[in-house]
């Protein structure tokens, strides 16, 4: 439940994120934060948003983002009443492509190199290296891509790849019993074994939740 609360706080950050208990600063947020390790690992930009009072105020003060956040909050509150399980809630919490684009466009319009959002990108987002795939882009575009990446849904029709040592690779393939025992669900379906060290797998809907106890999550 704690992981679900963290995701909810991130998803509705534009409506007023709860403080994550970290002190803002100029150094990149370390991934070893004790309480938000998995959260910061998978949603680094949104965790930074939650840390910065100046950026939070900027986002909350934007009329378009404020209306969007209000609608999202109302929808999530309704889903808490109507949904009977976490899968239903995860479906309701997903952003549409149009919603992701709307927020990306607003971030672009709000961005200025010298304002709080620009300084967050310059001093924390880019130095962190968490979005190095977009390192050849301008800072404004990196911000947009980081948001789009953090807000993406898991592509269930495409295989993911684990690549490690032979022993660990086969241990991951045969981890279903451990997952059932510790989590009471299996967060993946095995795909093709490509070699002694490479194994494909497909996520399942239960994997949408952040779960620090999940063997494959951290």
What can you tell me about this protein's structure?
The chain has 218 residues and is mostly helical. It folds into two domains: 2-150, no CATH class; 160-208. It has eleven helices and three strands; from the N terminus they run H-H-H-H-H-H-H-H-H-E-H-H-E-E. The chain has helices at residues 2-11, 37-42, 44-51, 53-61, 63-82, 86-93, 97-110, 116-128, 139-150, 166-173, 176-182, and strands at residues 160-163, 188-193, 198-203. The chain has a three-stranded antiparallel β-sheet with strand order 1-3-2, with helices on one face. Strand 2 and strand 3 (198-203) form a beta hairpin. The protein is globular.
Low-confidence stretches: 1-35
**Helix amount, in percent?**
40-55%
Q: Number of helical runs?
A: 11
Choose one word for the global shape. globular
Provide the gyration radius in Å: 18 Å
Major sheet: arrangement of strands: 1-3-2
What class, by secondary structure content? Answer: mainly alpha
Name the helix and strand elements from N-terminus to C-terminus, one letter apiece: HHHHHHHHHEHHEE
Topology diagram in text:
Blueprint: H1 2-11, H2 37-42, H3 44-51, H4 53-61, H5 63-82, H6 86-93, H7 97-110, H8 116-128, H9 139-150, E1 160-163, H10 166-173, H11 176-182, E2 188-193, E3 198-203
Antiparallel strand pairs: 1-3, 2-3
Helix pairs in contact: 5-6, 7-9, 8-9
């Amino acid at each position: 439940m704690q992981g679900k609360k963290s995701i909810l706080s991130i998803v509705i950050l534009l409506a007023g994120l709860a403080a994550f208990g970290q002190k803002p600063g100029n150094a990149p947020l370390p991934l070893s934060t004790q309480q938000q390790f998995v959260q910061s690992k998978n949603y680094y930009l949104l965790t930074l948003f939650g840390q910065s009072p100046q950026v939070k105020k900027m986002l909350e003060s934007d009329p378009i983002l404020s209306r969007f956040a209000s609608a999202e909050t109302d929808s999530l509150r309704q889903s808490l009443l109507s949904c009977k399980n976490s899968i239903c809630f995860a479906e309701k919490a997903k952003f549409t492509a149009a919603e992701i684009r709307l927020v990306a466009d607003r971030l672009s319009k709000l961005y200025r190199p010298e304002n709080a959002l620009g300084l967050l990108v310059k001093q924390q987002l880019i130095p962190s290296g968490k979005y190095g795939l977009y390192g050849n882009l301008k800072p404004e575009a990196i911000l947009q891509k980081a948001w789009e990446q953090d807000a993406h849904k898991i592509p269930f029709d495409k295989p993911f790849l684990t690549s490690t040592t032979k022993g660990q690779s086969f241990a991951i393939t045969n981890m279903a019993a451990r997952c059932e025992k510790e989590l009471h669900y299996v967060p993946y379906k095995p795909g093709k074994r490509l070699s002694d060290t490479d194994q494909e797998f497909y996520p399942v809907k239960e994997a949408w939740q952040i779960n620090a106890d999940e063997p494959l999550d951290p």
